Amino acid sequence: MSHSHWILIAILALAAALIRIAGLLAGSAIRRSRFAPLLDDLPGAIIVSLVGASLADLPAFGWLAATCAFATAWVTRDVIATMIVGVASFAGLSYFLA
């Protein structure tokens, strides 16, 4: 490899390290800020936004399958059962209704 290749590798390694350090510093600054309590709700908000965005383009049987999955999650509080019921109801409803 030439000299320029090694320089490029060194620059990219330095950039990767600086990005990680910046993330750690920003994370610790956010944890000390007044917005820290919002971090507890962030994972749920991300999941809701992803599910909502994916449901936006689905036909009615997709919404019905999502309702079955939600009901399963509500009753069982089990992620695996919710996924199984959601996928099975979507597959079955799309087979019979589409």
Descriptive report:
The protein is mainly alpha-helical and 98 residues long. It has two domains: 1-40; 41-98, no CATH class. It has four helices and no strands. The protein has helices at residues 3-32, 42-55, 60-76, 79-97. The longest helix is centred in the N-terminal third of the chain and has 30 residues, at 3-32. The protein is elongated and about 65 Å long. The N and C termini lie far apart (57 Å).
Q: Helices, strands, pairings?
A:
Blueprint: H1 3-32, H2 42-55, H3 60-76, H4 79-97
Helix pairs in contact: 3-4
Number of domains: 2
Shape: elongated
Largest sheet: none
- Helix coverage percent: over 70%
Mean pLDDT: 91
Structural features:
98 residues, mainly alpha, elongated
Task: Describe what is shown at a glance.
The protein has 4 helices and no strands. It is mainly α and 98 residues long. The mean pLDDT is 91.
